[in-house]
């Protein structure tokens, strides 16, 4: 049985290295080389040896070690390996007085998962946002601290389709009583201001896929003839962050939860419940040492004549000063192309969009 060192002075158990662990060892060696020479930093050399041991541990050994360290034992083998490696990495770097990974770039995360009008097997449908949830996560305490939730009245297609009601659980009388989107957006931004987001605290929007911002919010702003909010131009696609950090395939919301050893809480396709479950995934990523950063952005065309402004609230910034507005048109086009090319699952994401508008079978 392979063992990982429990104290900084103890020796790491050694064993015969297979081809995979040898390859991983070489990768860590390359990452650990100093810029001014070929020597390997002793800290990273030790981490490389520890990672090799972790790669050889069985699922049971991983869970036993995590339990011994009083860490979360839920999740697939890949999740457990990543969690244990990050624990030793943080501990070693702290002892070496090097800033450890896992510190969050932002103070808060706003998880948004819109529900929109839809029609079965119609991809060209004019989707209007009918449910606007926002779940606020404190990245330092790693817990949900507040929520915003309202419904919106659709204008282009005021009558919900039977398919839409069945998928989202939203009934006609609920949207009939609701305000139109611009009023709801303004109250949501007032809610953001009440938490001093973009003023005293940095934040990032988190979504499950690219469609909430790039499709639903953009279409809705066009329909409502209002400016696209500044805070929605760059966001964290949780699917990309998850697959990149845990080195796994791109997964949907339920699959990510299952892979973490969690179960979906609430009703699927309820915007608020979806947002809460996305928040649980984001919190687990933070707990496992992932620094969630914005990985997608949208280049919004200048507003057409007659477009209304919501006032100063529409200018709320996430606190990220590296906005793409300073890029040249060529740089923006290239970045958008790169975003598509770098995603091996781009076709899969389009298939997920079809799935979003289809009732899932049992």
Task: Give an account of the 3D structure.
With 362 residues, the chain is of the alpha/beta class. The chain is 43% helix and 10% strand. The chain contains 13 helices and seven strands. It has helices at 19-32, 42-55, 59-68, 77-95, 162-168, 172-177, 181-194, 211-224, 238-246, 253-259, 271-287, 329-342, 346-356; strands spanning 108-111, 115-116, 129-138, 143-151, 203-207, 234-237, 296-297. Strands 1, 2, 3, 4, 5, 6 and 7 form a seven-stranded mixed sheet that branches. Helix 8 (211-224) links the parallel strand 5 and strand 6 (234-237). Helix 1 packs antiparallel against helix 2 and helix 3 (59-68) packs across helix 4 (77-95). The longest helix is centred in the N-terminal third of the chain and has 19 residues, at 77-95. The chain is elongated. Mean pLDDT is 80; it is low at 6-40, 321-327 and 339-362.
């Amino acid at each position: 049985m392979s063992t990982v060192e429990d104290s900084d002075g103890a020796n790491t158990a050694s064993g015969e290295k297979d081809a995979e662990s040898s390859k991983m060892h070489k990768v860590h060696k390359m990452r650990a080389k100093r810029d001014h020479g070929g020597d390997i930093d002793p800290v990273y050399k030790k981490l490389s040896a520890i990672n090799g041991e972790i790669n050889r541990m069985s699922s049971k050994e991983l869970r036993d070690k995590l339990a011994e360290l009083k860490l979360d034992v839920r999740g697939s083998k890949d999740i457990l390996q990543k969690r244990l490696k990050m624990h030793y990495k943080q501990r070693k770097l702290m002892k070496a007085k090097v800033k450890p990974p896992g510190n969050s770039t932002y103070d808060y995360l706003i998880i948004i998962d819109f529900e929109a009008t839809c029609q079965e097997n119609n991809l060209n449908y004019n989707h209007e946002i009918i449910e606007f949830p926002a779940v606020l996560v404190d990245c330092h305490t790693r817990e949900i601290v507040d929520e915003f939730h309202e419904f919106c009245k659709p204008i282009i297609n005021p009558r919900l389709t039977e398919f839409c009601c069945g998928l989202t659980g939203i009934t006609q009388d609920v949207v009939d009583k609701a305000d139109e989107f611009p009023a709801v957006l303004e109250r949501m931004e007032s809610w953001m201001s009440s938490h001093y987001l973009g003023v005293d605290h940095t934040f990032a929007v988190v979504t499950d896929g690219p469609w909430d911002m790039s499709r639903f919010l953009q279409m809705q702003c066009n329909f409502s003839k209002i400016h696209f909010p500044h805070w929605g131009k760059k966001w964290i696609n949780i699917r990309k962050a998850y697959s990149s950090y845990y080195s796994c395939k791109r997964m949907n919301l339920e699959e990510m939860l299952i892979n973490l050893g969690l179960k979906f809480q609430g009703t699927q396709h309820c915007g608020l419940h979806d947002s809460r479950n996305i928040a649980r995934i984001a919190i687990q990523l933070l707990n496992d040492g992932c620094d969630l950063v914005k990985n997608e952005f949208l280049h919004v065309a200048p507003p057409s004549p007659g477009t209304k402004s919501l006032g100063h609230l529409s200018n709320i910034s996430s606190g990220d000063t590296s906005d793409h507005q300073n890029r040249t048109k060529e740089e923006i086009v290239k970045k958008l192309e790169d975003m598509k090319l770098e995603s091996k699952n781009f076709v899969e994401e389009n298939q997920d969009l079809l799935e979003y508008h289809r009732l899932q079978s049992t």
